[in-house]
Amino acid sequence: MIAPTPNPPYYAVIFTNYLTENQDGYHEMAERMVELAKEQSGYLGHESVRDQMGITISYWRDLESIKKWKEEAEHQLAQQLGREQWYQSFKTRICLVEKDYGFER
Amino acid sequence: MIAPTPNPPYYAVIFTNYLTENQDGYHEMAERMVELAKEQSGYLGHESVRDQMGITISYWRDLESIKKWKEEAEHQLAQQLGREQWYQSFKTRICLVEKDYGFER
């Protein structure tokens, strides 16, 4: 689903990644992280697609919300397991959304 | 491939979309637009994934480069056909990438 974000400005965290072959526990953790993110203050929505490469974008009210989410305890564990086990490579980009526009048939 | 972007700041254009059932000519045009984008001044790279939803992110040096690309003649035609025929819905977000970090095994 295209995330129903409010009018800009707001923030986007673009997480582009490739997985390793060791995916033990990954799927459950990914689902848990989506549920946990939704509970965070300042969370505005997310979009996620995977083919071989995965792109997950989460949208946030401000940098403070992003910082708190990065430091959340369960999320810290997920990030650690991601580096140790699940991700072959990733890039995270913190972005200020300055403008948006859309189209719906 | 994760786009090998330079150090921030730079810009990202996040294009999230769903396709219609009428995809005549879409694939060829999408490939042509990738080739054409690469030739534009200020183009830094792109990442694209589709499952049902598609996310394509293109990276640019500055807002001026994004504006010129939006107004490029062939791209204008592609945008028009997209609205008339190929896209069920889309959202475009223009973003200033303030910070990034990555990981590679």
TrEMBL record, chains A, B:
Example GO molecular function: monooxygenase activity
Give the organism's phylogenetic lineage: Bacteria, Pseudomonadati, Bacteroidota, Cytophagia, Cytophagales
Which InterPro entries does this UniProt record tie to the protein? ABM_dom, Dimeric_a/b-barrel, Jasmonate_Hydroxylase-like
Q: Taking every annotated instance into account, which residue ranges of this chain make up the domain ABM?
A: 11-80
Positions of transmembrane segments:
none
Q: Which keywords annotate this record? A: Monooxygenase, Oxidoreductase
Q: What is this protein called?
A: Antibiotic biosynthesis monooxygenase
Q: PANTHER family, per this entry?
A: ABM DOMAIN-CONTAINING PROTEIN, BLL5343 PROTEIN
Origin superkingdom: Bacteria
